[in-house]
Amino acid sequence: MATQALKVAVDWDNDAAYTGTGEDITSRVLDIAFFRGRDWASQLTGRSISGTLKATVNNESGDYSSFKGGSPIAGDILPGRRVQVQTDDGFPYTFPILFAGSPLWTGRLMRLTPSPMAGGVRTVELIATGPLGYLNQRDISLAMATSKGTGAAIGDVLDEANWPAGDRALDTGQTTMTRWWVDNLRTIDALRKPEETEGGFIYEAKDGKIVFEDRHHRLASPHTVSQATYSDAPGAALAYTRIEQDDPLPNVFNIMDTAVTLYSVAGVAVVWTHPETGASSPVVERNGGTRVFWAVFPNPDSATDAVGIDAWTTLAATTDYVANSEAGGGGDNLTASIAVAVVATGNRLKITLTNNHAMQDAYMTKLQARGTIVTSDDPVRVTAEDTTSQSVFGERNYPNPAEYIPDTQEALDWGRYNLAAYKDIVPFLAVTLSGNRDDTHMFEAMVRDISDRVTLVGTARAGLGINEDFFVEAVSTHVQPGGRLDVTWLLSPSLPVSDYWILGTSALDTQTRLIY
Do 5 and 486 contact (CB within 8 A), yes or no? Predict the structure, then answer.
């Protein structure tokens, strides 16, 4: 690649070292673009999405053609291999926060697609996804828990997804959910539940860690001080090459609407019954044969306000299951020969039955599951409104997507907090900086990260009348043939969400709005 700023590596041998045969592919990369962060700059409406990387790679050697023999990486061109973009040895700065070999993007290979050419250079398209995309290949279910902090809940989801503890950085969170569970959701959807309840932010770090910032994270150092100023003024030390302002109106909201649901727990009841009985009774084969059944609740016969199971009851012989040597219930009673193992995952109970009788198959003539049913109480809607904003912009409602707000007071606090931030128009920007201008610009292009606070001046050529602080919400980098490197940041204004008074952080009489 015709720039001395970046190194691109693929961990073909899967040892997490990026030093094996053919793993440094920098010289073969013709064009590369990679992204991390939110899909939209707003902290309210923007959602963290999986990072992406797309590179065009020279394949004249045929090394990256999966079906061509003789490749030094034959057999290792597999999805899931780690892909990392790093600062290269030619990078002009050495700092504790950024040095040669520092990661700038880390993810997993999705596919290599050859582009055969009758003439010209043969290439492959390398596509990689960030950690959130890599995790989002399975469904997550978690048993119902009580008094669960949002950070702990995110940790539970990552545990269930088998994501290593060393590859995450999670704030504790400010909200404790009275009840929390996950029932058969994709990993990213499961992570969004506590993220939305907290009003926090989940994203992918440069080194591939999954990060969770709670709603107070940016109110503490270093996020209280701008890290750099980018300006359109003639002779500015840091100048951007392009600036775009999004239409601010879609992010004006003067009615904040939250639905609060509380729950009640009933007594133990039969919540699931296997429907096959009599001659249709399922068989568990003799001499160690096993069958797996899933009890699922709520079901069509459940009460309309039933939401799940507080706790499943241990299956009891005769009460919950009966086995006979004949399908209709006759013959020998084999119930004592049945071993039962259960695993609760969300509102599902995995029941594994093993028939230990050496000579006879066992027909399960009765199989049921009991548990304590959780029902939802009558819902409560809590709103916060600003009539002055409504008189200017009309009524603009934002329904809070959070499902686990613990009480009406927190719902009101959430509404007031966000109403103060979004009842008026505020600027959301996309700013592009060229790293090729000089070493200082290249450093900024490499070092700036999600959640960094920066100052943006657009009072000269840009003509936007903007001179204020912003938070970086997304980072997109593109290196074109010839080595031109551009980085684009999505920026959200810091003032509406940072001039709050918080114990232990804020200065008395200078930041007077309370944060919840």
Answer: no
Sign of CA dihedral 18, 19, 21, 23: positive
Ramachandran angles phi, psi of 70, nearest 5°: 90, -5
Q: Which residues contact 501 (CB under 8 A, 6 or more apart)?
A: 511, 512, 513, 514, 515
Q: Strand 255-260 and strand 397-399: pairing?
A: parallel
Nearest Cα to Cα of residue 236 among 425, 438, 31? 438
Longest dimension (CA), the chain: 95
Q: 């600036």: which residue's tokens? A: 243
DSSP 3-state assignment of 246?
coil
Q: Which residues have CB under 8 Å from 100's CB, separation 6+?
A: 86, 87, 88, 89, 91, 94
Distance CA 468, CA 473 (A): 16
- For 320-379, the pLDDT digits (tens) are 999 999 998 999 999 999 999 999 988 999 999 999 999 999 999 999 999 999 999 999
pTM of this prediction? 0.91
Residue type, 465: G
* Residue 303: band (very low, low, confident or very high) from pLDDT cuts 50, 70, 90: confident
CA distances from 214 to 102, 109, 395, 478 (A): 26, 30, 29, 30
The residues that bridge with 312 in the sheet, in sequence order, are: 371
Peptide bond into 298 cis (omega under 30): yes
* Average pLDDT of the residues in 417-437: 95
Angle between helices 187-198 and 150-160 (to 10 degrees): 170
Distances (CA, A) of 67 to 31, 56, 272, 351, 374: 24, 19, 50, 43, 54
Name residues whose C-beta falls within 8 Å of residue 484's C-beta, 6 or more positions apart in sequence: 434, 436
Question: Average of pLDDT values for 66-75?
Answer: 83
Phi, psi of 409 (to 5 degrees): -65, -45
Q: Are 129 and 161 in contact (CB under 8 A)?
A: no
Alpha-carbon span 473 to 48, nearest angstrom: 9
pLDDT digits (tens, 9 = 90+) for 478-496: 999 888 999 999 999 998 7
What's the rounded Cα separation, in Å, for the pair 25 and 59? 11
Q: What is the pLDDT of residue 1?
A: 40
Please give the pLDDT value at position 2: 39
- State the Cα–Cα distance between residues 410 and 374, nearest whole angstrom: 22
Kindly state the tokens that stand for 109. Answer: 């290979």
What share of the chain in percent tops pLDDT 90? 81
Quote the tokens at residue 498. 């940072």
Coil vs helix vs strand at 197: helix
Cα distance between residue 325 and residue 67, in whole Å: 54
Angstrom distances, CA of residue 505 to CA of 149, 496, 498:
22, 17, 11
